[in-house]
Amino acid sequence: MSDSQDTERISKLANKNAWATGLLTFFFLPIGYIYTGRYKALFKGFGIVILITFLGLDDEFFDLVAGIYGIYVVVATIENVRAVNQAKKLNSGLNQNNSANLPSANNVELKLLKLMKRNREVTLADCVIETGLSSQQVRETLEEMMIQQLITMDNRESDGSIVYRLI
To answer: Which long-range contacts (CB under 8 A, 24 or more apart) does 116-120 make?
Structure first.
């Protein structure tokens, strides 16, 4: 599975209510797994239920099988609720990482100003490399910085390239 599919699956699971998951799984085992969208776990559990049922066909093992099935329902409920809670933790971590990776406009401007102070003049390519943003995003930021009269745009005398400098 790709990272985007994993992220989407975790996000969907994180949006589920842990209490509803627990109640549905405990009282209506398959419906609890359908609610969470965890079909692979549902089919594994279904296989266990079928196996337990075949073991319980013999009268002398009926009580033992009923006890095993009861334990399985409790364990499945705990496991399904744990999956939802784990997804909530992972999803909050993903959201924090995504927001930390998205540079704010002020942060980008500060990076560009520091770059210009270090190098005296920079090209668009220098700015893209420094920020990691697309050339369109950097160009828009540079234009905004010119409007704010923080930088100026000029042509380099040696080769005619467009360069940006601090005012």
So the answer is: 116/151, 116/164, 116/165, 116/166, 117/166, 120/165
